[in-house]
Amino acid sequence: MTTLAIELKPNSHPLPAAEREARLANPGFGRFFTDNMVTIRWTEGRGWHDAQLVPYGPLELDPANMTLHYAQEIFEGLKAYRQPDGTVALFRPERNALRFQHSARTLAMPELPVETFIAACDALVAQDIDWVPPHGGESSLYLRPFMIAAEVGLGVRPANEYLFVIIASPAGAYFEGGVKPVSIWISQDRVRAVPGGMGDAKTGGNYAASLLAQAEAAREGCAQVAYLDAVERKWVEELGGMNLYFVYGDRIVTPSLTGSLLEGVTRDSLLTVARDLGYQAEEARVSIDQWREDTANGTLTEVFACGTAAVITPVGSVKTKDGAWTQGDGAPGPVTMRLREQLLAIQTGNAVDPHGWRHTVA
Ligand SMILES: *Cc1c(COP(=O)(O)O)cnc(C)c1O
Q1: Residue among 167, 171, 92, 168 nearest 137 (CA)
Q2: What are the tens digits of pLDDT across the range 110-152?
């Protein structure tokens, strides 16, 4: 099978270098976008076609576009890091491509071939390579591939036309001036996903479902929400956009994939990185009671969250309806920081890449 060729029609008025540099000096997250984007269309009977790299800009949407009404939307998030030799590498893009296919199946959308997903990421990064921050920090170029229904109409059924888009945004270090532990609110009333639903798909709908609990967490003085399973309201699943790990000395445990939590690429990578560093790493069910009791008895030494945006975020404190506790001594723990450092070193090219996770952009 040949990969769909991407027609290159780049922006003829890219942002002047001085302005780009000013943005790269303090990019934040998701505030600035590069000069270009990639778009690919799918139509029933014709399949994927019209792959183009074009200037970044607004999409024209009919008010009756089906996405606006029935939310057939999926997305991905991955980072391009500047390597010590000046080249740029994506981190495990094939995992994102495969997850995108899984998300598409869950929402009755067409699957974009893995090669096309990666070729589209490559084309955008190659064109906007000057937007990739320099090597030496935690900054990166964040890629946001997504797909929406492109058909117009209010009939409820899977659309027969779709639009795939990739945009790119420079991202600064998640933690300015050092890693800071996050506070967690455990949501015992609201859930984000149900068995048989779409919790293991990366779709905006799951984020919409998480926002009310997120606002509740903010009122409780917490930065993030941890969700429990929807049936027993007992098993810890994940945060709204990050997976969780529990550290028991030299054994680390992440909640098993139940179908209602998202399989993070960071989560998966850490199972391997941890074993490479000599830790025992496993997937298991963890209950809210176990979390509380093992913290109290001192066996649960650290908890951290992980995802592409923050890599690893230590959990410093936890609050529930029935009480609150400090996680460990509230400061980032040594296992958390060791894993964070090692994963970042692989991503940024400061460590060898024994599993072939770096994908160099041509
Ligand atoms: C994207 C996401 C994650 C983290 O996945 P990574 O591939 O590690 O970035 C975790 N949970 C949810 C709900 C997500 O959407």
Answers
A1: 171
A2: 999 999 999 999 999 999 999 999 999 899 999 999 999 999 9
The secondary structure element, H or E, covering residue 209 is: helix 204-219
Single-letter code of the amino acid located at 304: F
Is 60 exceeded by the pLDDT of residue 1? no
Ligand 1 center–CA 155 separation, angstroms:
31
CB 327 within 8 A of CB 302: yes
Q: Are 35 and 128 in contact (CB under 8 A)?
A: yes
Of all protein residues, the one whose alpha carbon is nearest to atom 14 of ligand 1 is 241
Q: Which residue, 167, 161, 119, is CA-closest to 141?
A: 167
Q: 187: CA distance to ligand 1 center in Å?
A: 18
SS3 166: strand
What is residue 254's DSSP assignment?
E
pTM: 0.97
Chain segment 291-301, per-residue pLDDT in tens: 999 999 999 99
CA distance 302 to 236: 15
Q: Quick one: CA dihedral 54, 56, 57, 63, positive or negative?
A: positive
Q: Taking Cα atoms as reference points, which of 185, 190, 192, 306 lies closest to residue 242? A: 306
Angle at 120 between CA 117 and CA 125, to 5 degrees: 125
Which of 76, 142, 202, 254 has the most ligand 1 atoms within 8 A of CB, as the residue to mutate? 202
Domains and CATH numbers, the chain: 7-171 (3.30.470.10), 182-347 (3.20.10.10)
CA dist., res. 238 & res. 191, Å (int): 11
Q: Assign 276 to helix, strand or coil.
A: helix
pLDDT at 238 (0 to 100):
97
List, for residues 259-289, the tens digit of each pLDDT value: 999 999 999 999 999 999 999 999 999 999 9
